[in-house]
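Field notebook, page 257. I keep forgetting to write these up properly, so this time I am using the form the group agreed on. The chain and the ligand, NDP, are recorded exactly as supplied. Prediction of the bound pose follows.
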Amino acid sequence: MKKTVLITGASSGFGKACAERFAQAGHRLILLARRADRLNDLAEQLASQCDVCVLCVDITDATAVQNALASLQAPFDQPDVLINNAGLALGLSPADEADLTDWETMIATNVTALVRMTRLVLPGMVARDHGHIINIGSTAGHWPYPGGNVYGASKAFVQMFSRELRADLLGKKIKVSNIDPGMAETEFSLVRFDQAKDKADKVYEGTKPLSAEDIAEIIFWVCSTPAHVNINTLEVMPVCQAWGPLKVDRTMSFTDE
Ligand code: NDP
Ligand code: 8X3
């Protein structure tokens, strides 16, 4: 069955790879992001494989998002699948030094905008008793690391929100899935380090990270399971990544001892 798939953050990384993967299968696509040139190029690239429409909006702008969704014409106006993928990490500073504006942007994008998009699309899915929401979390939402602070917390929110949605939607034929990738080479680190390519490259140096296509293939599969099967959550890492032991500081002394 041809599905209408709304992908946020479709201008690069996982979102773009998802667009390419779902286009291969002939699904109808709604591509959302801020960079119009990227989206238009992608739409042109995919136009021979599927129907595509583009929404150039900042997902943190509530009015723009509402207007963009309202502007969708049939048959794009009834998404079967929402891939809540747009998101970002900004900086890697410890909590007492981090830029407060960066924190607010991460919460606005990774949490508030994802919640808003879900709330705007969900009533239609409920009315049609059909749909699938796929939220992109992160291993950072499970496993803290120095400098992860608000980014990790925002992804922990995504994981719990996905579960809460499932609880609310029980009895309806609407699926909710949460995908938590580990280290994947996209524009993620360039964005995190304010376009400093040397710093971004260091993250992946000497590794074989996940690719955007690896995650897109997994999302495509999650979306292709039989109607009665719901993948709740999937954590995915490259083989070269795993957990370290908990850190212990051996230099501290305490005056009350
Ligand atoms: P990219 O930076 O390559 O892609 C991020 C996408 O989000 C871009 O298309 C960007 O589009 C879009 N986006 C960001 N802010 C906004 C905004 N305000 N409005 C609209 N779109 C926005 O990174 P990834 O593909 O890696 O990231 C995709 C998701 O995966 C994110 O949620 C990220 O947190 C998560 N993730 C990434 C991992 C990794 O290691 N790469 C691992 C785990 C999770 P534009 O700039 O054009 O608006
Ligand atoms: C992206 C993975 O480990 O850089 O969510 O936070 S990590």
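OBSERVATIONS:
- Residues 143 and 243 are 8 Å apart (CA to CA).
- The domain at 4-236 is CATH 3.40.50.720 (Rossmann fold).
FOLLOW-UP: compare against the apo run.
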